[in-house]
Amino acid sequence: MVRLLTILFILSIGLTACGGDRSTIPTGAAGDASDSAAANGGAGGAGGASTAGIGADGSLDVTRVEPGQGDGPLSRLVIYFDYDRSEIRSDFNDMLRAHGAFLSENTDRQVRLEGHADERGSREYNIGLGEQRAQAVRRVLMLQGASTDQLGTVSYGEERPAALGSDENSYSLNRRVELVYR
Prior knowledge:
Number of helices: 5
CATH class: Alpha Beta
Strand order of the largest sheet: 1-4-2-3
Distance between the termini: 32 Å
Radius of gyration: 16 Å
Number of domains: 1
Largest sheet: 4 strands, mixed
Helix content: 25-40%
């Protein structure tokens, strides 16, 4: 019952995030397999197409997969956000479900959630926005079974861009939360 409620909650978050106007995100920007592969240090980004770490019953086998490796949802380590938003987009639900399951099964593992923003806005505003983004990811991971002592957050605001440039493609790559396992 708790698992069903958790899934319904995640789906409602995804539906809420889908309600916004996506016309500002260019084709090939945030969430594209090639961009997330570059941001993840070469790890595949599309998720779902691989059977690596999938059990015989179709469930995720978190004991056979290491975060950031392979080509399934657990390989993705970056969540991208829309402009001036901290709501998690629905295209990251499978990824966060996999990371939550991994942390739930591997209680000795910890992850630092590093929030980032693009260069638009004041430094103080962007630090706050990066923190809101990291906290949003933290809440979802906790709903998926991760414990509070496994999750740390930090916001770098605009100080550590993934892409240099003042165009929408660069901005979209800088609006992110990175999962850094320790």
